[in-house]
Amino acid sequence: xxxxxxxxxxxxxxxxxxxxxxxxxxxxxxxxxxxxxxxxxxxxxxxxxxxxxxxxxxxxxxxxxxxxxxxxxxxxxxxxxxxxxxxxxxxxxxxxxxxxxxxxxxxxxxxxxxxxxxxxxxxxxxxxxxxxxxxxxxxxxxxxxxxxxxxxxxxxxxxxxxxxxxxxxxxxxxxxxxxxxxxxxxxxxxxxxxxxxxxxxxxxxxxxxxxxxxxxxxxxxxxxxxxxxxxxxxxxxxxxxxxxxxxxxxxxxxxxxxxxxxxxxxxxxx
Length: 270
What we know:
single chain
């Protein structure tokens, strides 16, 4: 299937981000040629809840796995994108999926090329290779180039997606309770609180809600004890973005670990 003509020249409210995405899209066509299937937004710019402090999550679909020589060219291209005169160029995050790897989750699939937020270099990772990503893409993804995502991503089994969330809680969430120092940076502490609100929301509703929607929903569900902690994550968002490497307050770490423990107690993850 050939990519359709690009129709989303202004996919976000931010002109400078749209310019970065347009440059990225044209560079992908040049570098990948016939292997390029499409470029799609996912994450907050697709599902909602974005603001000027959001990173921009994307997925590139290719026909076949990227060959080593093409990977080297992509590495150089991402370096050039990173150096564009816009802060958005340093806050792109996404993965390159071969068409058939994206279609449905295969736990045995090899890691795909991934660009982390704040990085200029691709690595191999399964970061985006989840049911949560596929659900968000299929339900909310925005095509900057390429065919309808419903032709590329199979329907996601909601119970399987909930099981995926529970498995992440069995590993990552438990590790935060056992060693709160993992959340040593303030952005990580804030991220942990928001993410556990999203876990509760997805397990209850079967959808992947935006960060603000999930936080608002969770505040209506949780005991009043947690109101100050959850409200603080919203109030501190601008400060965290301005200084992402600042250490978290030890008192916030301890409270966040207790919050995560409380969420685990509410959810069956055994």
